[in-house]
Amino acid sequence: MPKSLYATMKALPGCREKVRDLLVGLAADVRAEPGCERFVVHTLADDPDFFHVEETYRDEDAFKAHMGTEHGRVFNQAIKTLVEGGGSTVVFLETVI
After folding, report:
1. CA 72/CA 57 separation, integer angstroms
2. DSSP one-letter code for 55
3. Alpha carbon distance 79, 77 (integer Å)
4. Tens digit of pLDDT for each residue in 7-63?
5. Cross-strand partners of 44
6. Contact 9/82 with Cβ under 8 angstroms?
7. Is residue 51 a contact partner of residue 42, using CB atoms and an 8 Å limit?
8. What is the number of other CB atoms lying within 10 angstroms of the CB of residue 33?
9. d(CA 49, CA 40)
10. How far is CA 1 from CA 16, 57, 59, 66, in A?
11. Are 16 and 48 in contact (CB under 8 A)?
């Protein structure tokens, strides 16, 4: 069964472009993971400092592999001083239909 989630983060004042650049780089790395089915980055239409990332992995094992990647660790370390709260908020989803 696929593993889906979304992650949100709000860039601190003056940090939007740096966060955006980090997400662009992360997207390339995550999309290259064999278990990644979807990795899409959005900003809110009325708040471009707020990022919304939609992710789907083939299954729980693919998600666990994703969580162990070096590029994920580097990204999470890099955003500590760039986003509110020092990291993203992750919400796991369950498919209804």
Report:
1. 14
2. E
3. 6
4. 999 999 999 999 999 999 999 999 999 999 999 999 999 999 999 999 999 999 999
5. 47
6. no
7. yes
8. 18
9. 16
10. 34, 9, 5, 16
11. yes
CA nearest neighbour of 89 among 24, 4, 2, 5: 5
For residue 45, the one-letter residue type is A
Q: Is the full-model pTM beyond 0.85?
A: yes
How many C-beta atoms lie closer than 10 Å to residue 23's C-beta? 22
- In tens, the pLDDT along 59-92 reads 999 999 999 999 999 999 999 999 999 999 999 9
* Identity of residue 16: R
